[in-house]
């Protein structure tokens, strides 16, 4: 499978970015290729396009499936498995947020809760627990916020993000009104 120079450039870039986002380079490249290709791809096509081994592709596909980022498809008359990404970019974003939350925030919240349940035996422990409580409360708010975002339609998410700085300005007006 031959890919265009533009797709090649983006695949290489997302490979680099993937390594910064906690994925390996190959996984980032594979996902970029799947997202940027209209038709579903099979493992052989991915291997050929990215010039990586078939076994590496198989491992990467398993990882992308575990993240719920790709869908398995079958094409009538073809025994191969094909893979595609959701067509809605907002669905991809929601999935990434949810999966990162499960892998990163939830275990951290659990550890913070455990630390808050311990009896502080010194002033240093009391201070540490106060800081842990602040971290816990912040992560709890982020978790609740991401849960709210998961239920929003793509149109509502887009509208929310377009508000951007407007939300901050609205909160400033609210604060001024409350000071009166």
UniProtKB/TrEMBL annotation:
It holds the Pfam family MarR_2. This is HTH-type transcriptional regulator. CDD domains: HTH_ARSR. Keywords: DNA-binding, Transcription, Transcription regulation. Belongs to the GbsR family. Residues 21-80 form the HTH marR-type domain. It comes from the Bacteria. Transmembrane segments: none annotated. Gene3D superfamilies: Winged helix-like DNA-binding domain superfamily/Winged helix DNA-binding domain. One of its GO terms (molecular function) is DNA-binding transcription factor activity. It comes from Colwellia chukchiensis.
């Amino acid at each position: 499978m031959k890919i265009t120079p533009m797709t090649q450039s983006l695949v290489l870039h997302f490979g680099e970015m993937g390594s910064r986002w906690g994925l390996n380079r190959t996984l980032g490249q594979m996902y970029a290729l799947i997202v940027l290709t209209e038709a579903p791809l099979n493992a052989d096509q991915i291997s050929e396009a990215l010039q990586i081994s078939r076994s590496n592709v198989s491992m990467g596909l398993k990882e992308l499936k575990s993240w719920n980022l790709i869908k398995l498809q079958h094409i009538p008359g073809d025994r191969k498995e094909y893979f595609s990404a959701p067509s809605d970019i907002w669905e991809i974003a929601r999935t990434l947020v949810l999966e990162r939350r499960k892998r990163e925030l939830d275990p951290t919240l659990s550890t913070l809760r455990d630390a808050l349940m311990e009896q502080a035996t010194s002033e240093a422990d009391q201070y540490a627990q106060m800081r842990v409580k602040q971290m816990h409360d912040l992560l709890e708010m982020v978790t609740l916020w991401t849960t709210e975002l998961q239920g929003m339609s793509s149109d509502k998410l887009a509208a929310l993000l377009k508000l951007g700085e407007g939300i901050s300005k609205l909160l400033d007006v609210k604060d001024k009104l409350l000071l009166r």
